[in-house]
Structure formats: structure tokens, C-alpha cells
Backbone:
């Protein structure tokens, strides 16, 4: 017995007659690798103006998400109890709003992949948030691209949908099936936690299938936009080009030749037919064998040294979509190929925060993958109300990671820049952007209830920027015997960061002030006034910014290597009042001139 989800529109497949290219929506936002992190997805949707949420509601979702602690060695979880799960879903259903402007523009949400079965904390929580988008009548249905991590989750779902719920061993069969396929996509923490919810009977297999059906129906092998006479934007999880489209068409018995690729429009029709065939294979349960046969054959060749797992040949197009990390060689079975007489801009992820080394005819690589939300010691998604790391995981690649690509992305999809509706704020300390406040004021209860503090809030460490306790006292500089009020500190501090963005000679990433989690006051030994402790979201962020502080002369150059775990910087109170003066000197001299040396009695960094 199989739990049904809507059958795909076959559109006379495989003959392709009647299949027309889907027009690009009025607006679209594309997210790089999600890393199985629902908070990563939530931030992206809020930042891009698709969703509206009050910061206390966001904080509560973050608290519940953080409660799940995964041990990769023991594969043991703390229990996500029923109350937390109900509360998480209640906030999503009742306290998150779809931005009316996003509905007016018909914004399409596209996820590049690694949505499930990755390093995050729970796939079921991700399904709950995705369900918000699926049920919204005013939005196009999201697109989710097939990927190496999603593959294990998809295979498991397709299999358990074929099991008989009336069987006495149904639950054990479901658990065994999901555990088996989870091993194919390690690290797989988010899928293991979902299995844990089933094992503890917090959710039932039927509930999982109910929420997963829309996810399955939104899956595509590849996608496209910006269709014109001169080119097309191709979306895949791993880097790919027309060679992979040809191989996929052959695999699904879809007529495809040079004629079918002669124009971007013909290519688009082929892509649509491929996605219909893919959905058909999910619906009839045949996909698992298609993918498993490729995976087993690839592994066999890799064991014999005849192929590389990170450069699957076109004989294995599903593996190529999921795993490829290379532009290929002279071998036509591994080389990425652009259009014959038009440009293919390939938006992809998978390869980490790098630039694909590709100098190919009529092909451009735009990588959206990054380490945000990826718990590998770089930067796990950080504190409420919103993770202030800028555009690192929107369509725009973070400037500090892939600087040459940012302009190219803007040229490919300029509409992306018009979609920052309610989630952007020029005031970094503002609890909620003004436009979002106006929308919220028009909403009836229960949405406005979350403008009041909740009883269950994150721990004290999640307070943002300046601690409230410090706002009642001035900072006293013992050397100059002058008072420096907190309000002035706060304003000068942010002005300093914003002005520093324009100083190319500092060679620091754009929007680097957003790398800061909080600024607080601490007492250091032998100091009569509080020092400023700046906590960054990760050691990576501190490492990127520290040279700029040294260049400005407010931090002494360390005499030894800094530990990999260091993510805080302490400035003496005597350093901060001279920041404006240092900044003025740096901006007024040439880049060859050395910075003003710091005083010898500067406090510890």
C-alpha cells in the first residue's frame, strides 16, 4: 500500500510534444546549500522578504532547534519532546506571516539542495517550515533541487511509501529502511534525528509522509530561468552543463540531440521533460533503483581507479548532478559544456566556498555554497534575532568568499536585488524593520502576541550587541578622566564600521560589522574601567577582521599564533575613544604609509 502524492503532469512524455518552457516568475530567490539546517532556511526567507516574523518568535524557534544536541560518534540525541515540537509548529503556523509584497510579486523560492539528511538538527522541523510555503495560495510552489544529501532522504521516503501500514512490523520496517538509506548520505544528523522522533513515537510514519509529500512533489533534477535568445541560467546542485542535460535525457528516454539544444528554448523544453520523468520515477517508486545502480557502478569504477568520485562521467548523470566538483578534462564524458551559440550560466552549490576553476566556452559558474549553517567548525548559524552575516547565503555570494562572482550574479538575476522587502534594516540595532512593523500592525491576533516577551527565551548569551545592564552607567577612561556615555560609544562604534567599508586599503570583507554577535563590557586585571569585549560569530570571522584592527592601530599584533577556537576580541577602554581619530588618519593617507603605532600600554587583545 502506498501513500499518494499528486501524480506529475506527464505532458505527453516522452515525446515532449506540448511541453512548454515555464516562464520565469516575477521574482525569485535562490538559496545555496542548506546543510539540513531549518534556521538557515528561516533566516534566508526572512532576509529575502518572503516571511515576516517577530524577533522573539525567531528566538523561540532558535531555542528549540538548539535543544537538539547531536553526538556524531554515539549517534545519540537529547529528546525533542512533544511540547517543543508542538510549539515549533504552532509558531510556524500562527506567528509567521507571508509577506504580502512577496505574494504580489509571485516570488519563487528555489533551494539548490542539501535540504535534508545533512549536518543540521532535524529534517522534520525543515518539513514543517516548508509546509508554510506549500500551503500559501499566493506563492509559486518552491523548487528543491536533487542533491547528494537529499538523495538518501528521498530514497528512504520512496521506499517507506510502498510499505503496508497494516503490517505488524510496519514501524520497524520504516525505521530499518530509513536507517539503511541514511548511511548513503553521511554526515546525516538531521535525518537521524527524524528517525529518532519516529523511534520515540513522537511522530508517526504517516505524519512524516504527510509532511514529506509536498517536498517530494517540489523536487527537480535541475531548473532554469532568464530564458532569452542569447542564453539561459541553469540551476543544479553540483556544477553541470549541457553534457549532463543530454545524459539525463538519454537516461529517461527523452529525445535529445544537437537540434534540441540549438536554442535556449529547446534546451528548456528538454529540461522540463526531464523533470516530468524524474517526478514520474518518484511517483511509481522506480527512482531508487535508477540512482542505486549509478551509485554502485560508480563505486565499483572508483575502487578500480578508473573514475574519480568527484568527477562522475556522463554515463552516470544522477551521480554527476549530486557529486560533481570538477569542470572536467579533455574527456567529453567529464568536461562541462556550454551552449553551442549561446551562454549557459550555471548556478550551483556543493563545492564549498570556492570558485570552480573553469574557463569554458559559453559557460559561467556561479557558486552559492558556503559554510553558513554548516557545523564543521566554521560557522554554525548564530544568534537571534537574525544572523547578521549579510548575503553569505542569499543568491549573492559573500564578497569575502568569492569576490569576482558577486557582480556576475547581479547581472544574471538583477531581480534578486529587488526582493529585500521587509527583512532589511539600515539600523542594525532596530528590533524590526519599519516596513515589517507596518505590516505587523495590520495583522490581527495571534500574530501580534509575539510582540510581547515569551516565557521561554534563549539563554543570556544570546543577547544581541550591548548588554542592557551597561546602559545605565558611563564608561570611565581612567587615563583621560573623561566620561564616554554608552550612547556615544554605540553610535561611534557603528559609524566606524560603516565608514570602514569604504576603505579599500583595509582589504576587509564588505559588511564586516555584521560578523559581530555582541559587544559587552568586562573588567580586565589592572584596569579601572571596563574593557570592550567583541564576540564574533566564529573564529573565521575574527580572523578576517583582526588584520583591520591591527592596521588601524587599536589592537597589537599578536606575537604567537592565535588558537583556532578564539572568537572574541577585548579592547581596552583607552583604545575605543581614539577609533575615530585612527580612522580619519587611515582614510587620509596613502595605503603605503604605516598606521599610527598603538600606545605601548594598550590593553590585551
Residues:
Amino acid at each position: 500500500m502506498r501513500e499518494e502524492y499528486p501524480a506529475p503532469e506527464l505532458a505527453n512524455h516522452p515525446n515532449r510534444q506540448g511541453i512548454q518552457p515555464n516562464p520565469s516568475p516575477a521574482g525569485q530567490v535562490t538559496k545555496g546549500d542548506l546543510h539540513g539546517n531549518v534556521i538557515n532556511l528561516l533566516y534566508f526567507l526572512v532576509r529575502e522578504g518572503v516571511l515576516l516574523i517577530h524577533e522573539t518568535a525567531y528566538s523561540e524557534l532558535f531555542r528549540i532547534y538548539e535543544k537538539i544536541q547531536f553526538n556524531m560518534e554515539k549517534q545519540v540525541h537529547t529528546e525533542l519532546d512533544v511540547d517543543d515540537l508542538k510549539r515549533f509548529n504552532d509558531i510556524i503556523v500562527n506567528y509567521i506571516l507571508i509577506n504580502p509584497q512577496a505574494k504580489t510579486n509571485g516570488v519563487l523560492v528555489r533551494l539548490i539542495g542539501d535540504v535534508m539528511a545533512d549536518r543540521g538538527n532535524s529534517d522534520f522541523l525543515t518539513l514543517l517550515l516548508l509546509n508554510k510555503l506549500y500551503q500559501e495560495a499566493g506563492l509559486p510552489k518552491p523548487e528543491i533541487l536533487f542533491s547528494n544529501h537529499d538523495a538518501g532522504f528521498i530514497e528512504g521516503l520512496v521506499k517507506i511509501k510502498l510499505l503496508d501500514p497494516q503490517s505488524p512490523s510496519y514501524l520497524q520496517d520504516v525505521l530499518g529502511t530509513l536507517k539503511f538509506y541514511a548511511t548513503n548520505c553521511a554526515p546525516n544528523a538531521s535525518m537521524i534525528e527524524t528517525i529518532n522522533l519516529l523511534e520515540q513515537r513522537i511522530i508517526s510514519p504517516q505524519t512524516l509522509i504527510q509532511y514529506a509529500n509536498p517536498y517530494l512533489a517540489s523536487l527537480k533534477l535541475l531548473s532554469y530561468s532568464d530564458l532569452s535568445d542569447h542564453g539561459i541560467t541553469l540551476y543544479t546542485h553540483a556544477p553541470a552543463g549541457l553534457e549532463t542535460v543530454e545524459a539525463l535525457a538519454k537516461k529517461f528516454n527523452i529525445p535529445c540531440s544537437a537540434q534540441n539544444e540549438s536554442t535556449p528554448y529547446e534546451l528548456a523544453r528538454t529540461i522540463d521533460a526531464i523533470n516530468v520523468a524524474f517526478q514520474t520515477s518518484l511517483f511509481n517508486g522506480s527512482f531508487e533503483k535508477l540512482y542505486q545502480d549509478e551509485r554502485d557502478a560508480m563505486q565499483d569504477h572508483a575502487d578500480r581507479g578508473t573514475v574519480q568520485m568527484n568527477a562522475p562521467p556522463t554515463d552516470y548523470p544522477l551521480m554527476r548532478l549530486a557529486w560533481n566538483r570538477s569542470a572536467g578534462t579533455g574527456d567529453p564524458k567529464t568536461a562541462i559544456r556550454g551552449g553551442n551559440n549561446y551562454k549557459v550560466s550555471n548556478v550551483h552549490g556543493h563545492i564549498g566556498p570556492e570558485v570552480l576553476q573553469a574557463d569554458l566556452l559559453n559557460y559561467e559558474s556561479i557558486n552559492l555554497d558556503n559554510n553558513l549553517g554548516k557545523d564543521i567548525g566554521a560557522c554554525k548559524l548564530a544568534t537571534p534575532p537574525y544572523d547578521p552575516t549579510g548575503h553569505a547565503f542569499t543568491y549573492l555570494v559573500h564578497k569575502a568568499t568569492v569576490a569576482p562572482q558577486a557582480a556576475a550574479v547581479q547581472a544574471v538575476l538583477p531581480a534578486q536585488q529587488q526582493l529585500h522587502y521587509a527583512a532589511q534594516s539600515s539600523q542594525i540595532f532596530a528590533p524590526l524593520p519599519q516596513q515589517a512593523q507596518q505590516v505587523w500592525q495590520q495583522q490581527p491576533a495571534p500574530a501580534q502576541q509575539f510582540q510581547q516577551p515569551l516565557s521561554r527565551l534563549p539563554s543570556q548569551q544570546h543577547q544581541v550587541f550591548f548588554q542592557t545592564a551597561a546602559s545605565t552607567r558611563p564608561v570611565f577612561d581612567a587615563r583621560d578622566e573623561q566620561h564616554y556615555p554608552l550612547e556615544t560609544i554605540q553610535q561611534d562604534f557603528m559609524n566606524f564600521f560603516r565608514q570602514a567599508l569604504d576603505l579599500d586599503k583595509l582589504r576587509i570583507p564588505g559588511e564586516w560589522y555584521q560578523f559581530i554577535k555582541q559587544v559587552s563590557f568586562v573588567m580586565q586585571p589592572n584596569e579601572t574601567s571596563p574593557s570592550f569585549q567583541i564576540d564574533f560569530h566564529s573564529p573565521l570571522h575574527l580572523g578576517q577582521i583582526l588584520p583591520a584592527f591591527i592596521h588601524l592601530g587599536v589592537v597589537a599584533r599578536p606575537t604567537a599564533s592565535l588558537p583556532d577556537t578564539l572568537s572574541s576580541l577585548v579592547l581596552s577602554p583607552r583604545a575605543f575613544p581614539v577609533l575615530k581619530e585612527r580612522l580619519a588618519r587611515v582614510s587620509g593617507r596613502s595605503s603605503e604609509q604605516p598606521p599610527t603605532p598603538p600606545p605601548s600600554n594598550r590593553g590585551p587583545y
